[in-house]
Specification:
The protein is built from 13 helices and 10 strands. By secondary structure, it is α/β, with parallel strands linked by helices.
Amino acid sequence: MGQLEDVARALVAPGKGILAADESAPTIEKRFKSIDVASTEENRRDYREMLFRTEGAEEFVSGVILFDETLRQEGADGTRLAKVLEDKGIIPGIKVDKGAKQLAGSPSETVTEGLDGLRDRLTEYRGLGAKFAKWRAVITIGDDIPSSYCLHTNAHALARYAALCVEAGIVPIVEPEVLMDGSHTIERCYEVTDRTLHRVFGALHQQQVPLEQILLKPNMVLSGSTCPTQASVREVAEATLRCFRNVVPAAVPGIVFLSGGQSDEIATAHLNEMNALGGGPWELSFSYGRALQAPALKAWRGKKANLEAGQAAYYKRAKCNGAARHGKYTAAMEAA
């Protein structure tokens, strides 16, 4: 196995998954506002350092996706935060896209920007210790969308990003997210996810990206958030597995699902059910942001006195998702 394949496989090691701590400035500000904490550089550092230094989290967390600021930051004791992670055996990664912007000619859809100058940025990030990267494409379900134009444009950008990552010696996490916002049924989500993934893997093939060296970070196949009939945990797991078996090549080492607005417990339950059912050629793992962090953020509230409570809340969610990787998560673990 090559070095990139080794990193990709380490990120989806059994029982482990990825923490997405790569919130952009507006997103982290929104999160902090919910607990009445100002989004200053020091507060952002203290919060992320609290997570990164959590004792034992490395049993369940293989890697952390960082924001540009965080990759460059030092902890309170002067140790670089990327080094704090590495010292615990956790692999540091980096978000490299510049966000979803309105798609020219189709204003209700978006395309992700950030390809300009990416080759140089990847070289710099590699020097700062990043071993993997992430790029998110956003696909919205609506009356006449997503359009083929939107799917083509986003798939092309994802594949260009992935090819540049491989060239730079960085594992690309390819994230096409079909949003759960809307009143669509689980069947409609299945159809759009299927179309999206076909486009993405077609583009990766065209741009000669070796699939053994990437990870896929997709949505689960879910009912829309305002759909009157919500699919059960079992139905979500079965539909997601059926969709991915049809489209995702066996060469991909792992699928690290995003939580995408699901509650922390539901995201864990869905992952658990998929692993309990099994039957796919890839590791089924997690790359959660809010679904790993929400209880920790609430417990911390920006106060040094709450540091241990914040870490305990984060450890608990990491442990629950670690169990879900083996299909061994139970509701009783939430009460523990």
